[in-house]
Write a structure and sequence with these properties.
By secondary structure, the chain is α+β, with helices and mostly antiparallel strands. It is 51% helix and 11% strand. It is flat and about 80 Å long.
Length: 366
């Protein structure tokens, strides 16, 4: 049992005063000072015991540990959905840039006559001054006229959108009617006890900070693995298996996606989600190409992922998967990738897989 320093000092002072008091009286054969000190100590111990029991009763009970609301399965599903959402945003940005570029090109083509007229006027003006324009100056004039045409089209587009927005605005009477309708609906909910739409329970699963961090880690991990993968083609490489063709960029994207979705495969078909195990079955012993007869297409088993051409982020669980696959496997402790596909012209079994061949690559800075 613990005592405060103040309490100990008081007890010591009281005992000293009693013991040194003169004369020392006797109480039933004992010094009265000893009897008083013993009684004072008993009272103090009883008082401290009572205080301790009261403090213990007032102390709040510890709250039990909260059970996890989500299972590991739902957490994995949320992380996988977070990855797909991030890829969708990336794809939307690329598509927006492509759309903007196509629109600008169309504007320049439409204003081609005016651009040519402006450039010719600039040439005539420079020639009249005795300083003809060089080819570089003519190109600069063309680019300037094209930019002015694009800027003019953008301003016209913005003005049209503003007019459309203003036309869709509600009039004062419409605003008043809307407010009255809201008040009536609120009164009806009070009568029936129904919840307001803003307070309704959302069915959408929220992504926690931990899950957002996990999504970020998945992207970083996939990027690291891609950088260490051997056998990656250059981005501008032309790759083919039979009649099917692709480029190096699409192969790299498929390899990255294979690493990205390896923990939670994606796809609408539950039995055919990607990435999946590659069927590395050996060729027939009677194959007409004796160099591969009886052998497996790859030295090790691995996982395959669809290659999707002309896509900003590759296959993301929807749409067709195409004919070619990027197959990743480990050999000698390192990751490797090969492009595989079917080629009926090389054998009798149309289900056989063959390693792709590369054409001469253009110069490409990695």
């Amino acid at each position: 049992m613990k005592f405060s320093l103040t309490f100990v000092a008081l007890v010591s002072t009281a005992l000293f005063a009693v013991v040194h008091a003169a004369p020392a009286p006797l109480c039933d054969g004992e010094l009265c000072s000893e009897v008083a000190a013993r009684d004072l100590g008993d009272v103090a111990f009883e008082d401290l015991a009572v205080r301790a029991s009261k403090a213990k009763a007032k102390a709040p009970a510890k709250a039990p540990a909260k059970a996890s609301k989500k299972s590991s399965g739902s957490q994995k599903a949320n992380i996988s959905q977070g990855i797909l959402n991030a890829q969708k945003k990336q794809g939307n940005r690329v598509d927006a840039r492509k759309k903007k570029s196509a629109n600008n090109k169309k504007v320049v083509q439409t204003a081609g006559g005016q651009i040519k007229k402006d450039v010719n006027a600039a040439r005539d003006k420079a020639r009249a001054k005795g300083k003809p324009l060089t080819n570089a100056q003519v190109d600069k004039k063309k680019a300037g006229a094209a930019n002015r045409a694009i800027s003019k089209a953008q301003k016209a587009n913005k003005a049209a959108k503003t007019a459309k927005y203003n036309a869709a605005k509600k009039t004062p009477q419409q605003k008043k009617d809307r407010k009255a309708a809201q008040t009536a609906r609120r009164a009806e909910r009070r009568k029936t006890g129904a919840a307001a739409p803003a307070n309704a329970v959302s069915k959408k699963q929220k992504v926690s900070k931990q899950q957002k961090h996990a999504v970020k880690q998945r992207f970083q991990s996939a990027k690291t693995k891609l950088g260490k993968t051997q056998g990656l083609p250059g981005r501008k490489a032309s790759i083919s298996v039979g009649k099917e063709k692709t480029d190096g960029r699409a192969v790299r994207q498929a390899t990255f996606n294979s690493y990205l979705h390896s923990k939670t495969p994606i796809g609408r078909n539950p039995i055919n989600k990607q990435p999946k195990q590659f069927n590395n079955r050996p060729y027939s012993a009677t194959h007409k190409d004796r160099t591969i007869a009886g052998k497996k297409p790859l030295p090790q088993n691995g996982k395959e992922y669809p290659i999707k051409n002309n896509s900003p982020n590759g296959f993301t669980g929807q749409g067709s998967v195409g004919a070619l696959r990027a197959v990743t496997y480990k050999k000698g402790g390192k990751n490797h990738v090969k492009v595989m596909g079917h080629d009926a012209s090389r054998g009798t079994d149309p289900n056989d897989h063959y390693v792709a061949t590369r054409e001469v690559e253009e110069f490409d800075l990695e």
